[in-house]
């Protein structure tokens, strides 16, 4: 392969991506604490929660994958629209997030349930340490758009999160987003 | 380490970097084909050509380093202000460039002198394939600001470029930037 460029349009999303992943509410309803509210969303049009536009590169150590993601604004009950969240299959691999537009929170958690919540706003650069699961929330009124870069051999373990969830989540409070224990919502 | 965030200001450059590298004309005069013009720049105030603001992370495989760079506008003769350029010491490692503002060109070259010139403008995402030397030029009238992400164990080989140079470079033409063979300028 040769070096290449992908341009992003006014939306901040990659033009001519090699792969597009669309996550509707029905693809991830179980991620939300309030399953009744999630079901209502599905019955009322099953909206796209987020989409990821990826560029493909060889799956080798040292190679870097990148994608642009847009999370739409919204809540399920008090819980903000979010990504599924994942660990990397290779626990030595980090990830970088650059926020293009919108407002959000990246929530990171270890297997022993330590957590960190980091603010996403235009120009913020987040370093996700190896070994931390991570999920992003749109806490604003506009789409949250960001670029993610990660080692091509990182691998994505979504299943652990689907089975065990995060111990914390981010909800709409009276004065903005608040991180709470997931157990308090169920 | 825990996950962390670095914010960028209106300039697009990292606030509170862990390390700052400033490259003045006198640090890299030999990079330019017109050594007399480079000397004139040094005698007339020795301007900053570019600065890199870095965040430090552990130097381990799987870890990702990132930095924001600003290249000031200007030319040395017809050659645009540019970075020193480097190979990675680990030839299996890639790099990603995200352009925050300004206009530029990323020039990439292999050891057997194949080259690729890629356009940098707001939102462009460049993937530099492992094994390709790379250098960026500010071809606009404003600062060129970009984010770079690379494996923390990549290592920077500047010396090969200092000794052998690039076979191609980017100059100001009548209708915008033009890639030429460096040998035609000396």
What key phrases describe this protein's structure?
Jelly Rolls; globular; 6-stranded antiparallel β-sheet; homodimer; mainly beta; 186 residues
Write up this protein.
The structure is a homodimer of 186-residue chains. Chain A is mainly β and 186 residues long. Chain A has two helices and 16 strands. The first copy, chain A, has helices spanning 35-43, 159-164, and strands spanning 4-6, 19-24, 48-55, 64-71, 75-76, 79-80, 87-88, 95-101, 104-109, 115-120, 125-128, 133-138, 144-151, 156-157, 168-173, 176-181. The first copy, chain A, has a six-stranded antiparallel beta sheet, with no helix packed on it. In chain A, strands 10-9-12 form a three-stranded antiparallel beta sheet, with no helix packed on it. The N and C termini of chain A lie far apart (49 Å). The mean pLDDT of chain A is 96. Chains A and B meet through strand 1, strand 4, strand 8, strand 10 and strand 11 of A and strand 1, strand 4, strand 8, strand 10 and strand 11 of B.
């Amino acid at each position: 392969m040769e070096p290449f460029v992908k341009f992003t349009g006014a939306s901040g999303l990659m033009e001519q991506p090699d792969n597009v992943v669309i996550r509707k509410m029905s693809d991830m309803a179980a991620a939300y604490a309030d399953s009744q509210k999630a079901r209502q969303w599905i019955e009322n049009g099953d909206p796209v929660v987020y989409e990821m536009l990826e560029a493909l590169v060889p799956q080798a150590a040292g190679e870097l994958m990148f994608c642009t993601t847009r999370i739409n604004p919204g809540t399920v009950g008090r819980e903000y629209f979010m990504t599924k969240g994942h660990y990397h299959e290779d626990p030595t691999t980090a990830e970088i997030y650059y926020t293009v537009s919108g407002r959000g929170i990246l929530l990171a958690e270890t297997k022993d349930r330590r957590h960190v919540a980091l603010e996403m706003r235009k120009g913020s650069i987040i370093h996700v340490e190896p070994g931390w699961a991570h999920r992003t929330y749109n806490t604003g009124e506009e789409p949250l758009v960001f670029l993610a870069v990660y080692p091509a051999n990182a691998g994505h373990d979504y299943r652990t999160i689907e089975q065990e969830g995060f111990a914390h989540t981010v909800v709409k409070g009276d004065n903005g987003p608040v991180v709470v224990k997931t157990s308090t919502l169920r």
